[in-house]
UniProtKB/TrEMBL annotation:
Keywords: Lyase. This is 4-hydroxy-tetrahydrodipicolinate synthase. Transmembrane segments: none annotated. It comes from Flavobacterium cutihirudinis. InterPro entries: Aldolase_TIM (IPR013785), DapA-like (IPR002220). Belongs to the DapA family. Pyruvate binds at V206. GO terms for molecular function: 4-hydroxy-tetrahydrodipicolinate synthase activity. The active site is at Y136 (proton donor/acceptor), K164 (schiff-base intermediate with substrate).
Amino acid sequence: MSIQWNGVMPAVTTKFTSDDKLDFNMFEVNMKAQLDAGVSGIILGGTLGEASTLLEEEKRELVKHTVSLTDGKVPVIMNIAEQTTKGAILAANKAEQDGAKGLMMLPPMRYKASDHETVAYYSDVARNTSLPIMVYNNPVDYKIEVTLDMFEELLKFDNIQAVKESTRDISNVTRMINRFGDRLKILSGVDTLALESLLMGSDGWVSGLVCAFPAETVAIYKLAKAGRIDEALKIYRWFLPLLELDINSLLVQNIKLAEVATGIGTENVRAPRLPLHGTERERVLAIIEEGLRTRPTLPNLSAN
């Protein structure tokens, strides 16, 4: 299965039981909601997936189970967030063996690599996997920016194909299109800039709040791409207070609480994370409850 690198690709949460095991029953409920809404890929093992807390065997089990659940309907993409080049290559190879069809890949973790080191890191992984790669470019959170000059070198590899663009600089979309055209597919990685990014020419949206609101997220994407901007804006303006729950250090807990409210998740997180409590929990619940109270009726997406 080739990856088109467009549409809405949820960075899904990992579901846990109350006794801290993988909860594949609730995961299946969420996957059905995502697929029914029309997402174009499933991304595992990101920040929302609590990958840093998952055991190696759990990651592999998660990939295999998701491949089985999706049954070829959409590609399964595994995030690579490793401290060493050797570890990244090994993780990429395991993901491929387990049935993943693509990789989302962060720069080296914990070590602030230079531009040269970062290019070498991505290049070495690209040489050692046949899977297509989406570079996760998030200098705000991970302190390393993959610049346009660095992409110029990386795009010599046919399997480096896309970027999850999370610089927060919306004009970077235009810079990338001007420089690389269709050679580099661009997916917005910031929920609160997603519509703006799509209107500037991004191919897709790697979303967080889609985990709780898949139909609304896909509707915004489809309406924007169909030129039905006013309809997309109406939903997006309703959605923004919820989308802001994603640009927060407690994004995992926030989004899992939203999944509970929409009936497609649980609050269970893995320690040291803990569910929200106190005034912060009440604040987030109020945002979610207002979103549910004012939830829009979605337009006919097949209408001309």
